[in-house]
Design goal:
This protein has 8 helices and no strands. By secondary structure, the protein is an all-alpha fold. It has 2 domains: 2-55, no CATH class; 62-150, Winged helix-like DNA-binding domain superfamily/Winged helix DNA-binding domain (Arc Repressor Mutant, subunit A, Orthogonal Bundle), CATH 1.10.10.
Length: 163
């Protein structure tokens, strides 16, 4: 679970492994205070998220890109389909990155880890209603921006991303 949360935040297996290791090291360093922790799983999840948040990078590794291209080619995708799919993925990544931090974090945990609202609330230390409202706002914002781009009202420039 710690690795999965780190990977969801970082999208890089090496960084996720380092984050998981750092999370457990912090956990062990604070073991004298852990007797007060009611839910160790939630504690570890929150700690993993915080450690990962401190390590985030916007760069996608060459290995990840190459694997994605090989998988798509293996499924019979044409070069044009690969380019279109990659462009759409980059566009969505930029749109998500442009969301306010609270919406971006909530959406990331929901989409990549498929965590429930109570789990996300526990990890981020916010009320469940805030999680549900944040998910609704994030999805609506992405829907509106994507519709505007697809209708040709904006280019894929920073205007479409809300910057």
């Amino acid at each position: 679970m710690v690795y999965q949360i780190a990977y969801a935040a970082l999208r890089n297996s090496h960084d996720a492994e380092d984050t998981a290791q750092e999370t457990f090291l912090r956990f062990l360093r604070q073991r004298d205070r852990l007797a007060k922790v009611r839910d160790v799983r939630a504690y570890l999840a929150r700690a993993a998220w915080r450690v990962a948040a401190g390590r985030r990078r916007k760069v996608i590794s060459l290995d990840q890109s190459a694997r994605a291209v090989l998988e798509a080619r293996g499924q019979g995708a044409t070069a044009e389909e690969l380019v279109a799919g990659a462009e759409m993925a980059r566009l969505l990544e930029r749109m998500i990155a442009a969301l306010p931090r609270d919406l971006r974090e909530t959406l990331s945990l929901s989409m990549t880890e498929e965590l429930t609202s109570p789990e996300i609330a526990q990890i981020l230390g916010i009320p469940q209603n805030s999680v549900r409202t944040g998910l609704l706002r994030a999805r609506q914002s992405l829907r509106e921006k994507l519709a505007a781009v697809l209708e040709g009202k904006y280019g894929t420039s920073s205007n479409a991303m809300g910057r």
